[in-house]
């Protein structure tokens, strides 16, 4: 059972208790009024006044308990968000963890790139950013001649750093090592 449902149940029972205490108090007051009407006085035969003899503390305690229960029920209703807060914190934690993993992969990739010259670095970065990039698209993004790009790609393929897959009249390029 969730916190909201428990809060509603507690509020319901607090209202029922308050009504019950009120009904019992009203019944006692009516009995006193009926006695006064019948006898014409509020004094008993032993001389005690019915108004002073009534013990109201039990009713006050009942109403206080009902108020405390009602307040607790309202608290449970209004602060049901604790579960949502925990879920949100968990999602944030997962996002931070994913971001840290992504940052680690980028750092590993940048360390990997440090072993290559500038042309190879640029080509590997483009392949890393867009896995499966076609050779013709890469040529336009790198501003290299077709021959120069082909030579570098063949070298990287020989070194088993990238792989090529035929796609129409061009090739799709993939990094063999995953980061």
Question: Care to describe what's here?
Answer:
By secondary structure, the chain is mainly alpha-helical. It has two domains: 3-79; 116-175, Winged helix-like DNA-binding domain superfamily/Winged helix DNA-binding domain (Arc Repressor Mutant, subunit A). 72% of the residues lie in helices and 8% in strands. It is built from seven helices and three strands. The chain has helices at 3-39, 50-53, 57-78, 81-113, 118-129, 135-142, 146-158, and strands spanning 133-134, 162-167, 170-175. Strands 1-3-2 form a three-stranded antiparallel sheet. Helix 1 runs antiparallel to helix 3 (57-78). It starts with a helix and ends with a strand. The mean pLDDT is 89.
Task: Please describe the biggest sheet, giving its number of strands, its sense, and whether it closes into a barrel.
Answer: 3 strands, antiparallel
Helix content: over 70%
Query: Separation of termini?
Result: 45 Å
Task: Name the strands of the widest sheet in spatial order.
Answer: 1-3-2
User: Which sequence of SSEs, written as H and E, runs from N to C?
Assistant: HHHHHEHHEE
Q: Count every beta strand, where a strand is a DSSP E run of 2 or more residues.
A: 3
Helix segment count?
A: 7
- Poorly predicted regions are none
Q: What assembly state would you assign to the polypeptide chains in this entry?
A: single chain
Strand content: 5-15%
pLDDT averaged over residues: 89
Total number of distinct structural domains: 2
| Global Rg | 41 Å
**What is the SS-derived class?**
mainly alpha
Shape: rod-shaped
């Amino acid at each position: 059972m969730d916190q909201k449902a428990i809060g509603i149940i507690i509020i319901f029972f607090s209202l029922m208790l308050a009504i019950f205490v009120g009904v019992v108090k009203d019944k006692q007051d009516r009995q006193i009024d009926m006695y006064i009407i019948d006898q014409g006085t509020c004094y008993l035969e032993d001389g005690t006044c019915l108004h002073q003899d009534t013990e109201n503390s039990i009713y006050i305690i009942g109403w206080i308990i009902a108020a405390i229960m009602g307040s607790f029920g309202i608290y449970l209703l209004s602060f049901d968000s604790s579960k949502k807060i925990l879920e949100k914190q968990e999602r944030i934690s997962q996002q931070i963890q994913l971001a840290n993993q992504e940052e680690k992969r980028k750092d590993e990739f940048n360390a990997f790139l440090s072993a290559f010259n500038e042309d190879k670095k640029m080509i590997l970065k483009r392949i890393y950013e867009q896995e499966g990039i076609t050779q013709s698209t890469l040529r336009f993004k790198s501003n290299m001649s077709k021959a120069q790009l082909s030579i570098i790609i063949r070298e990287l393929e020989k070194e088993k750093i990238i792989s090529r897959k035929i796609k129409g009249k061009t090739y799709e390029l993939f990094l063999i090592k995953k980061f």
